[in-house]
Recover the amino acids of this structure.
């Protein structure tokens, strides 16, 4: 009897489990797949919240002059026409530094003051030369009087004239030497030698400290003064691109510090000869740096541009889908609605391509996820 009851209980448990297993209980929710509509042809429609929309990015494209080649490596340098590198013309010890890095200075403004025995020697040379010239002038005046009274021979007069001329020349030499050391003059030699800036500008570099001994033969300049609003951008141009570079042609300059900004410039100079080792030629570009964004020693990318007024849309190559001989992009014509559009390319380079037709300034082009959209469109067809 007990055995029969146990068998009946086991059968009941099995029937209950089968009931829930095969749908007898509450229905389980099932995720609905996202459907994609492809009406009309070459068009995808996604409902709001579709996961595909999170994988794509669309944006309007800039219209830029068509480049003549891929971007070239370049470097921002000082404009040497408005830059001076200052060394001390004499030896001495730094007493006081008057200008700091980044300071604006005027022409003639003191950069630093130093104690210099050479300055004392130069001042003493001027005083001795002037004193000797005055003495020789008196001797010449006396000789002229004596010669007129026939008290001395003519050769004595000529000797006095020669001595005076030599003394005058030595005086001029000593004065010029002192002016070379201190073009703006010396107010008080006891206060030390003041080295002044020959031009107005900004202190771009300072290579000295208080108490330091300086000499004229130091390898590095003590100060670099420049106008930061003017810089040069130099390119090592490959020989194969030389025919595309001409003085006056426009260029577009970009730097890592401002990846979304392009600086307009022009080719200013082309070197007369190539480097025999690298087979490259130095090309110098001028650029307006009135906002002081470009800094000397920055690395840059320079794109040679065609001398034309027409611009083209710059398209990232990742946004382009190729099909045989034709190129296409996906344009977002409405939220969740993307249309595949054929575009004729003007030129194609390593990172970007350019199209003059097929797009408008208001079109939002898919720049990320174009391959995903193309695959879904092919599948839907």
């Amino acid at each position: 009897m007990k055995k029969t009851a146990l068998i009946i209980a086991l059968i009941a448990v099995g029937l209950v489990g089968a009931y829930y297993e095969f749908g007898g209980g509450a229905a389980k929710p099932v995720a609905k797949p996202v459907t994609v509509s492809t009406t009309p042809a070459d068009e995808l429609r996604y409902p709001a919240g579709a996961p595909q929309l999170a994988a794509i990015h669309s944006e309007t494209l800039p219209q830029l002059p068509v480049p003549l080649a891929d971007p070239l490596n370049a470097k921002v340098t000082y404009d040497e026409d408005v830059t001076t590198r200052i060394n001390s013309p004499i030896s001495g010890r730094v007493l006081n530094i008057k200008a700091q890095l980044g300071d604006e200075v005027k022409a003639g403004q003191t950069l630093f003051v130093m104690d210099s025995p050479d300055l004392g020697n130069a001042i003493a040379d001027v005083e001795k030369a002037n004193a000797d010239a005055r003495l020789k002038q008196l001797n010449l005046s006396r000789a002229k009087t004596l010669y007129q009274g026939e008290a001395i021979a003519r050769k004595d007069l000529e000797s006095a004239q020669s001595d005076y001329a030599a003394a005058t020349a030595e005086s001029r030499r000593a004065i010029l030497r002192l002016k070379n050391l201190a073009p703006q003059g010396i107010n008080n030699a006891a206060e030390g030698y003041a080295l002044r800036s020959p031009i107005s500008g900004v202190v771009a570099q300072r290579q000295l400290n208080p108490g330091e001994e300086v000499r004229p033969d130091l390898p590095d300049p003590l100060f670099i003064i420049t106008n930061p609003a003017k810089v040069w951008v130099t390119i090592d141009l490959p020989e194969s691109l030389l025919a595309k570079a001409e003085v006056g042609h426009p260029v577009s300059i970009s730097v890592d510090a401002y990846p979304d900004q392009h600086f307009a410039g022009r080719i200013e100079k082309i070197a007369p000869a190539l480097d025999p080792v690298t087979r490259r030629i130095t090309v110098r570009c001028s650029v307006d740096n009135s906002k002081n964004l470009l800094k000397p020693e920055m690395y840059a990318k320079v794109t040679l541009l065609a001398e034309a007024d027409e611009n083209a849309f710059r398209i990232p190559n990742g946004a382009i889908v190729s099909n045989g001989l034709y190129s296409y992009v996906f344009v977002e014509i409405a939220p969740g609605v993307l249309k595949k559009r054929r575009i004729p390319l003007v030129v194609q380079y390593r990172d970007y391509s350019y199209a003059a037709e097929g797009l408008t300034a208001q079109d939002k082009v898919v720049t990320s996820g174009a391959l995903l959209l193309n695959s879904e469109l092919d599948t839907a067809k």
Q: What stands out?
A: Residues 81 and 226 are 9 Å apart (CA to CA). Residues 18-35 have pLDDT under 50 and may be disordered.
